[in-house]
Amino acid sequence: MFSKILIANRGEIACRVIKTAKRMGIATVAVYSDADRDALHVEMADEAVHIGAAPAAESYLQIDKIIAACKQTGAQAVHPGYGFLSEREAFAKALKENGIVFIGPNPGAIAAMGDKIESKKAAAAAEVSTVPGYLGVIENPEHAVKIADEIGYPVMIKASAGGGGKGMRIAHSAGEVAEGFARAKSEAASSFGDDRVFVEKFIVDPRHIEIQVLGDKHGNVIYLGERECSIQRRNQKVLEEAPSPLLDEATRRKMGEQAVALAKAVNYDSAGTVEFVAGQDRSFYFLEMNTRLQVEHPVTEMITGIDLVEQMIRVAYGEKLGIGQADVKLNGWAVESRVYAEDPTRNFLPSTGRLVTYRPPSEGPDGDATVRNDTGVFEGGEISIYYDPMIAKLVTHAPTREAAIKAQSRALDAFAIDGIRHNIPFVAAVMQHPRWISGNLSTGFIAEEFPEGFSLPQPEGEIALRMAAIAIACDHRLNSRKRHVSAQMEGWRKVEFERTRIVSLGGERFEGEATEQGGAVTIAFPERSLTVASDWRPGEPVWRGTIDGVSIAAQVRPILNGVALGHAGAYANAHVYTPREAELAALMPEKVAADTGKFLLCPMPGLVKALLVAVGQEVKAGEPLAMVEAMKMENVLRAEKDVTIAKILAKEGDSLAVDAVIMEFA
């Protein structure tokens, strides 16, 4: 077995590989850019080598620097993780030429399957059902429009060398094809160093289902079940689960056998994923093959008990697979939420900055479920503008899908992040969504269920009552502390706090009377009483405890006269008053937000790539105004109404903070 390996990646996946390598007794080498000097993967590895400036093109995409780091440290093999160089045939070849083992498939398999155009040709040759499309390279927008017209709309414009939703656009008209072609080529060039794109038919109401395959260098290939990855936005997966609620055993076997046949046709010899687009009738078409470890691999590991990173290392060393197809058993259900640094209330735009608070839920058993959190960050660290905005992957595993979803919801409630915007409120809301719970999914789920964008759900019914009880319990705990503050003046009578509390929560009013007994607080509401028990202390960002014996968690942040709460996908400020305070609070005028309608504000920290209008120009609603790049994505900012440009306050190349004014309208 290898004695030392280098991980040619960063963040969560680098940390993930290091954990398995250490368990196997293999020493690890990390590489890092200027931006990652203090990163978690650097701290976890046995050695670390600096490889360049912050932009990936100057560090993590530099093959020569990775090879030099291997020679400098004596690393015998390289695990590429996902993204960056993981699907570059040239990288695998360069390592081989320098006597270094690539922990991934052979260069021939990468060439055949890693390139989306070539993989579709190979799939067609292997008689695998493929989506209608044009498999040649498209040179210009006019050519793209002609092809799209012939295929029929809608179409998907996709980077040949890419993945992770980068360099991908859906177009419903010729105009959208022309614009999408330019954006896809630009993103593909900046993210992968390869600007080739192709066009294929976009299947309406599809599901995204993928098969995990695992092969060795002795001709053995098996499949490890499927993953459902249909919950996506901007073609980027957000939630994954295994197995899929759509498939039956016959369809699973058929998809798995096709995936294995395709892998064997190209002599595939590592972990890889064959992706399919599936209809609601369980029909399916080959989409692409990712010749690397997938981001969502943990859900497969949880239901099979197989460590995919370990298998990749053993296969790369030359070992035969120790498991056959008959040995693969699917146990229970796993759900994964990708926790991103983005603002779901601003159309999921990226967010960067320091993680002032980062406290994930505890890993390990949670009743009949198990919690796993794969991450590459730490409290006090920074989310950089240079790389993918993923913070963590939160995974729960349980005997049933319902139990796994409930465990995921509890874990999200217990996940505290401050300092940046993040998507936990969104994924927590999805966990409560009836359509998600029913398993009636498609890749259009987010667009269909949140057509006006996402806003923080207000608490209702049982959830609202629970949150009111938590607010009163927190206020009761704060009052208890006040009783024990030292050096208080003694009055002529003992200070007593009012037992009746009135909670203003999400537009509703709850009145309850709190009574403490045996360490628990019973709160009598008009409709019923709730008994609340917790060891929560003021200042802790997560409230953990029981309500009527049921374990729950909630996000808690102090505000004036109360707490801001988040629980079960609902969020609201809970103002807690005595009856007299409530009377006075009702007389206070509400603060009106400033009108920003005359300004174009930068919706995220980013780089101004282009200003698309001039002072004095009249612009119609929907027309582009500027383009801002953040976290490898180009975001076109459009006019929300008909306006005239009065002033332009930024210039191309400027790095702007969130809400910085780009231009002013007349």
Automatic annotation (TrEMBL):
ATP-grasp domain: residues covered: 120-317
Keyword Ligase part of the UniProt annotation: yes
SUPFAM superfamilies in alphabetical order: Glutathione synthetase ATP-binding domain-like, PreATP-grasp domain, Rudiment single hybrid motif, Single hybrid motif
Cofactors, names only: biotin
Reactions catalysed according to its record: propanoyl-CoA + hydrogencarbonate + ATP = (S)-methylmalonyl-CoA + ADP + phosphate + H(+)
SMART domains assigned: Biotin_carb_C
InterPro entries: ATP-grasp (IPR011761), BC-like_N (IPR005481), Biotin_BS (IPR001882), Biotin_carboxylase_complex (IPR050856), Biotin_carboxylation_dom (IPR011764), Biotin_COase_C (IPR005482), Biotin_lipoyl (IPR000089), CPAse_ATP-bd (IPR005479)
Entry coiled-coil feature ranges: none
One GO MF term: ATP binding
Top-level class of the enzyme under EC nomenclature: ligase
Pathway: Metabolic intermediate metabolism; propanoyl-CoA degradation; succinyl-CoA from propanoyl-CoA: step 1/3
Biotin carboxylation domain location: 1-451
One GO term (biological process): lipid catabolic process
Keywords: ATP-binding, Biotin, Ligase, Lipid degradation, Lipid metabolism, Magnesium, Manganese, Metal-binding, Nucleotide-binding
Annotated ranges, domain Lipoyl-binding: 590-666
Listed name of the protein: propionyl-CoA carboxylase
Gene source species: Bosea lupini
Lineage: Bacteria, Pseudomonadati, Pseudomonadota, Alphaproteobacteria, Hyphomicrobiales
